[in-house]
Amino acid sequence: MVNKVEICGVNTAKLPVLSSAQMRELFLAMKTGDRSAREKLIKGNLRLVLSVIQRFTNRGEYVDDLFQVGCIGLIKAIDNFDLSQNVKFSTYAVPMIIGEIRRYLRDNNPIRVSRSLRDTAYKAIQVREFLVNKHSREPSVSEIAEELNMSREEIVFAMDAIQEPVSLFEPIYHDGGDPIFVMDQIGDEKNHDVNWLERISIREALRKLSDREKLILTLRFFEGKTQMEVAEEIGISQAQVSRLEKAALNHMKKYI
Question: What is the reported pTM?
Answer without folding.
Answer: 0.44
